[in-house]
Design goal:
Elements (H helix, E strand, L loop, with lengths): L2 H7 L13 H13 L9 E7 L17 E8 L4 H18 L3 E5 L10 E2 L2 E10 L17 H4 E5 L3 H11 L10 E6 L2 E7 L8 H20 L3 E5 L2 H4 L6 E10 L2
Parallel strand pairs: 6-7
Antiparallel strand pairs: 1-2, 2-5, 3-5, 4-5, 7-8, 8-10, 9-10
Helix pairs in contact: 3-6, 5-6
Length: 255
């Protein structure tokens, strides 16, 4: 299983076996993090892994999950740092699946002895992970996601590679499964929008969710040998949309 295949199989886990993971596997996770592409390379990030196999080092929080290991993500607090962190964390979660490990994002938790900052880094999220009690994967059809018809407006018939990227974007996880995105497809371009709520900019976890979505886009582009630029187009960003907020566009370049 590679990262692209893991997108269709990944599920969020909350039932873990309190078993040790081989040190070599933990080292592989750290090495993968060091090489994982980010949305905005100018934003520094850092991770730490806590061993909780003795059950004494779980993070605190209402939505906590008992797991043998926790990965903590920190980031510089810069513009769109949550989106950048989401992109990295989703890649980590998918990579864990390729190693036979389940995972779960825990946003509203913290460690008792761990400050909310680490130097110039801001705490972002915890990923609970380990060997799971039960099925490790699920079929793509079992994912509770809105249909493509509900998510995407077609302005020009998308190319087949554009359709492939739209599908992996549709499968991206989101907080409370809110699926805060909408897509507009025009041939070899996909424009991504955030649903407006009572604010003019995406919220904290909406940005993290979009980072997960863009991780899927980057993984699909790599798997399909596509050159994809994720950029903001000025002619779209300057427009005012009644029901949505423009985020980014994926420009797919095929020779």
């Amino acid at each position: 299983m590679n990262l692209y295949e893991a997108i269709s199989l990944r599920k969020s886990h909350r039932n873990f076996l309190m078993e040790e993971i081989e040190p070599e596997t933990l080292a592989e996770i750290g090495a993968f993090y060091e090489e994982a592409p980010s949305l905005f390379p100018g934003i520094k990030t850092e991770i730490g892994i806590t061993d909780n196999t003795d059950g004494k080092h779980a993070p605190k929080g209402f939505f906590g999950v008992k797991a043998p290991y926790y990965l903590t993500m920190y980031s510089e607090k810069k513009d769109r740092y949550m989106m950048n962190a989401g992109c990295i964390c989703e890649q980590l979660s998918l990579y864990m699946l390729t190693l036979g490990l389940g995972s779960c994002f825990l946003g509203s938790v913290s460690y008792k002895k761990d400050a909310r900052t680490r130097g110039d880094m801001e705490f972002v999220i915890v990923i609970a992970f380990g060997k799971v009690n039960g099925p490790l994967t699920r079929r793509a059809a079992e994912a509770k996601r809105l249909s493509m018809q509900e998510l995407c407006s077609i302005r020009e018939e998308p190319k087949h590679w554009t359709q492939s990227i739209l599908e992996v974007a549709r499968l991206a996880p989101s907080a409370y499964n809110a699926q805060p995105w909408r897509f507009v497809a025009t041939g070899s371009r996909i424009h991504f929008f955030s649903k407006k709520k009572d604010f003019t900019h995406p919220g904290k976890w909406d940005e993290f969710d979009f980072g997960c979505l863009f991780a899927h886009v980057l993984i699909a582009a790599d798997e399909l040998w596509l050159d994809v630029d994720l950029i903001r187009l000025e002619n779209i960003s300057q427009k005012n949309f009644k029901m949505s907020q423009y985020v980014l566009s994926a420009i797919i370049k095929v020779e």
